[in-house]
């Protein structure tokens, strides 16, 4: 009833949505049920996500009726006709948002003319990624899987036609670099509305993402925007929303760990789910059902949950979450995925983010209330307890590194390097004794970087999963570079300055060369390669084994666009204005200092 009042007050904007009153995924078309199952298993489209992004062109009851009229086992042809007759194009409830992009005020500080021209192109590329929902395009009674928001937003690109939670932090960083503060604010305020409505921030703007979140970056977005604008009204508005989001993580994902007579509380990714993710339906269906090992209902439910929790982590998928860590002659990549154990891992990155959320909330509550600092002390104490737990459980003194923690073995995953371990140094979640090891904390990272010419890998495991070797991801380069800057500041010496710069060079060269080699050009500066037909792609991930290749693997083909890559490159270019574009057709190399 409470929700009804909320929606009524928002007026007609929400009419025509599949799920306006629902707080979780329950649409008979887009979430679960015979229609979804039959259409998805018929594999009418190469990507499972396409169908669930198609709005209906007839009222929902007529769509369901027409489906039932097809009988028990409709063939592929009649399903194709059914979909064609009752659904519109994927994403057609969205329309481009006309963002006005002025000139970039720091463009002239970039010394290299090629990079300067490329940055100008990236600065203007937000136009291709900015959208708003236009639910007026839906007919009366028709539905779509959209979670509608009132303001415009930027999407990652490719199959990711709607906005995503953690991607948006890196997009917002880029928008702020581009001086598009209003669009950054629009995105953050959309998130506020979603948290108000659902009590947490969903993975992305689709109802099939309503059963899970993604790495909690909202407080970091608020922090970025507030640092830039010092807008206290904005901060006041953010606080109750972040309080609410914090309680979601606290209540839904906390585990208590006993060690050495003490109790610690940390968080993990965990999702209540017992069916294929609608947007990866065929993939999940095969993973769970097409084998002889996973037979009981309980095993199946657990795997569906761990698949969804892996997606919640943003790292879908990685050996960090699987029991089997390597392929061999008899172990396929699906076998690895079947060994998912996501909910039994305490991830270092998630807990660093939550520490940061607690610390920001303590600071901001203290800043905005003058007399009653009950909230500030609550968050201060939560942050302190978490830091104690990071110290006791996740920090490894011998290796001078943080690791994930395995709830089953009650031990660190201390034989597995992951660049997620750098999050505490980016966010400042660093226990006192760690300060004595600051001159060693990048030893493992440096060793990993020394093995390959490209950017920093996500893990050292060579699986076929996309968050493992050989893939490196732009957001993790941002985290690593910032972590190195911070540690230098704490050490009061420029110990990691050059290492950070090499990483900045490798990140920009990887993005630039893979763009150039797919047809990118700069008028009057850089001619398009003769052997290319496209116009240059910005990729979502890169192969760490070279400076010229996009990444690959995982459950979908490599995507171009790309929100977080553009954001991270703009940030790097504004912080390192003397980088020089490489010759992408000869093998350039950036050795470690
Ligand atoms: C598919 O089913 C429809 C309706 O039952 C039928 O008319 C059609 O011949 C079938 N097509 C094929 C290729 O089997
Ligand atoms: C969080 O937990 C509450 C209480 O158990 C539950 O009702 C809700 O669905 C959970 N939220 C999500 C997104 O799973
Ligand atoms: C999402 O969660 C709700 C409530 O727990 C559940 O009824 C529904 O089946 C879930 N959806 C999926 C796709 O698992
Ligand atoms: C099911 O698994 C078998 C054996 O691993 C494989 O050959 C087959 O292609 C799989 N079927 C589907 C529909 O993926
Ligand atoms: C966690 O530890 C258990 C027990 O040692 C092990 O079987 C499992 O593979 C580990 N999980 C992960 C994700 O490494
Ligand atoms: C694969 O399985 C076969 C039969 O069980 C076994 O003989 C062989 O050694 C296995 N190969 C590897 C690489 O484990
Ligand atoms: C730290 O790492 C070493 C080497 O992997 C391991 O032997 C040790 O148990 C780890 N320490 C803790 C506290 O887990
Ligand atoms: C990963 O393993 C595959 C085959 O097992 C091999 O071809 C590839 O070169 C390896 N990649 C790396 C980065 O070691
Ligand atoms: C296109 O030409 C460039 C320059 O000669 C070369 O480096 C690149 O590998 C070529 N790309 C393809 C796809 O052949």
Automatic annotation (TrEMBL):
The record's catalysed reaction(s) read:
alpha,alpha-trehalose + H2O = alpha-D-glucose + beta-D-glucose
Enzyme Commission number: 3.2.1.28
UniProt-listed PROSITE patterns: PROKAR_LIPOPROTEIN (PS51257), TREHALASE_1 (PS00927), TREHALASE_2 (PS00928)
> What EC class is this?
hydrolase
The record's Pfam families line, in alphabetical order, gives: Trehalase (PF01204)
Q: Any keyword Coiled coil?
A: no
Report the domain of life of the source organism.
Eukaryota
Molecular function terms from GO: alpha,alpha-trehalase activity
| Keywords of the record | Glycosidase, Hydrolase, Signal
GO biological process terms, alphabetically, are: trehalose catabolic process
The signal peptide stretch is 1-20
Q: Its family?
A: Belongs to the glycosyl hydrolase 37 family.
Protein known as: Trehalase
Q: Which gene encodes it?
A: ABSGL_14112.1 scaffold 14385
